[in-house]
Amino acid sequence: MTAAAIARDRHCSDIVILDLRTISPATNYFVIATSTSDRQARSVADEISDAGERFNYPRFGRAGYEQGRWILLDFVDVVVHLFNAETRAYYNLEMLWGDAQRLELEEPGRR
Questions:
Q1: Contacts of 69 (CB under 8 A, 6+ apart)
Q2: pLDDT by residue (tens digit) across 17-52?
Q3: Which of 28, 66, 82, 105 is the most buried (most CB within 10 A)?
């Protein structure tokens, strides 16, 4: 939820959290978001990585950072995908993992 909230607060769009615990042996959750630029994607990736460190949840791996079209952050139990719109539409992870339950990100100030 923290990764998704960071993406939301940094103006990414179409944020989706997929619960993969019952359908994937590789990870428990995907966080998927669309960035407006490669620069924004890198900035959001950096902030999510920093938050992982602060919460004693270090990043295991990172891919695509230099290009910024699809940045993957692997925290083992959570994998974050930051896409530009074109790349996200092409790979369509939500359809690929269509059986996954979607979790709702609470809006700020709402309880």
A1: 38, 41, 83, 84, 86, 87
A2: 999 999 999 999 999 999 999 999 999 999 999 999
A3: 82
Its CATH architecture, for the domain 2-103, is: 2-Layer Sandwich (3.30)
- Residue 111 pLDDT: 47
Distance of CA 4 to the CA centre of its chain: 6
Domain boundaries, the chain: 2-103
Please classify residue 5 by burial: count the beta carbons closer than 10 Å to its beta carbon, then call 0-12 exposed, 13-18 middle and 19+ buried. Answer: middle
Q: Which two tokens stand for residue 7?
A: 């993406």
